[in-house]
Each structure stands twice: as structure tokens, then as C-alpha cells.
Fold:
Amino acid sequence: MSVSNQSESPQTAPMIDPFGRAITYLRVSVTDRCDFRCVYCMAEDMTFLPKKDLLTLEELDRLCSAFVAKGVRKLRITGGEPLVRRNIISLFEALGRHLESGALDELTVTTNGSQLDRFAQPLYDSGVRRINVSLDTMDRAKFKAITRWGELGKVMAGIQAAQQAGLAIKINTVALKGVNEDELERMIRWAHGEGMDVTLIETMPMGDIDGDRTDQYLPLSKVRAALSEVFTLKDIPYKTGGPARYVEVAETGGRLGLITPLTHNFCESCNRVRVTCTGTLYMCLGQDDAADLRAPLRASEGDALLEAAIDEAISRKPKGHDFVIDRRTRRPSVSRHMSVTGG
Ligand code: SAM
Structure:
């Protein structure tokens, strides 16, 4: 792909929201498609966007570069499954120039790991140094049951390839009541033994799925209490720019992150916004308000319109989300799936 004329990313006005929070972290979903159908994430017969609605890789590069020019220091590529988008490595290669110039601190990716055996080395070569791999179980049959279409062996081979390529890995695990609840200790021991951090995530009420979310929801306060019976957990001030709070596990020497959108609202320190693969900017994962960036992006070759649209949207960034999961609130808090805005 050709690189946009924004290769130098000259600084423009930084993004400060109405609550004084500087926006320095952008998450970009490059496709809504995925090769898995995780039960808590998608229905099995999802309807995906027509390919013509997607931003091209060149447009994604231009959009990301405009955000870098506006002060974004950390860029995460996500999806859907980002590594199933055709020619995606060319986007990483293009964005790598912002690491070289020092405009960007970190370029990273969240993946289900299914394609990592092919792409770990090209990712590293593009400047990626840390990746998140989503893995909810290490039991082959459970893995199939959760992901419907995934194969555990491929993901484990991908993780190994990523380690060999020199990528630091964080394992992201959604805590699911009665599904992987009994396995979390083992997964933490395994990941820490392999030198990987682990982050546990509560299920969030996003998009319609086939089942009832209340059946899956496991508050991390309960998980922490159970883990405290086998591990010594010590709160530590470690931060990656994301919403996780970290503890150190004395027995393994590893770090464990806890993302608790339901039991503890972490919005006060929110530094991020999200863009979908069609160029819609969401100022909060848990709210529906959004801004279209595709029209201003396509309206002219220069970035003035795009920057104005970004500024206007940031001025509307809400204070926080209000996710609820209970038996009376059967509708999802937001109608779009996590795969639209990227987890
Ligand atoms: N396909 C990539 C992956 O698997 O990491 C990136 C996209 S996926 C939507 C990102 C993360 O969101 C995954 O860790 C997934 O488990 C998580 N996720 C999806 N739906 C969720 C939900 N409703 N609540 C909490 N986490 C969710």
C-alpha cells in the first residue's frame, strides 16, 4: 500500500476532552469479521458489513496518522480479528514509521492468535513489541465450545511463534461463570511460567448474543477472592495505558490485570477513543454517541476537515459508561457488538 502524505505527522492541536482528560490512546478496528464466533461476543450467524463500506488500508493509515498528529502515543489494531483482514501487515509496516519518528510510543495488536504462526515475525519487523492474545481456556473441548470455530492447537502454535519472534504477550481471559472459573488458577500459573502477563476481564453487555449474559457474568471481585485462597496477591501501581488494575502474584512472580467495567468503573482516567472499520469514532465503549470520520476523510485530500470532525467529537466525550448486567435489564447496554468497536 502507498503511505499517506502525513508521513511526518506534524503536531496539531492535542485532544483534551471536557473533563480535562488528554486522549493519547486510539484503538482501531480494521474489520468486523472474525474466524471465531465466541459465544459471549457474537451470534453464530452474524451479518457482517459489506466490504465496500470498510475504509481501505490507505484510509486507515491516513486516519491513524491524523490521530498521531493530534497526540495519540499508543495505537492498538483490533477487530473483529485484525489478522484476517487481507494484506493487514502492510498497514502495520506503514504505521511503523511513526515509531521510527518518535511520534508514537507503541503500536500493538489484540488478536485471537489464530493467524499468529504466520504473522508474528512480520508484526515484530513492523515495530510491534507487545501483543494481546485472547484465550479463555486451555481445554481443547471447552475452547471449541466457547469459540465455536476455533482450534486451540493453532492458537498455542501462534503464541509460541510470537514468543520466538520476541513479542511480549499478554493473555486476555474473559471470566465466564461455570465455564473457565475453575481453570483460572492453572492458566495464570501457565502464563506466568511462560513469562506472559494475564488480564482477566468481566463480560460486558454489548450486542445481542444467542444466550443470556446473566448466565455468563462472573464478577472479578469473586474471582479475586477465590484466587486469594491459593495465591498471595499484592496491588501494584503498574500501568499499561489501559483500564486494568494490576496485582503481583507472589507465588509465580507474574502480573495479573483485572478489568472490571461492571464492578468498578474506571472511566475517570480514560485516555482513549475507538474507531470502527467504517471510520465511525466512538468516544466511549459503553455509549452509543459517535461521529462519522469517513465522510470528512473522503471529502478532501487534506486533513483539515478530518481534524475538525475529531475535535468536535472529542468535545462530546462522555464522562463514562453505565454498563449493567442483571436479570431485569435483559437488553445489552449498547446494541453494537464488541467486534464492531474492537475490544
Ligand atoms: N479478535 C481479537 C481477539 O480475539 O482478541 C480482537 C477483537 S475481540 C472483540 C477483543 C476482546 O474482546 C477479546 O479478548 C474478547 O474476548 C473480548 N470480548 C468480546 N466480547 C466481549 C464482551 N461482551 N465482554 C467482554 N469481553 C468481550
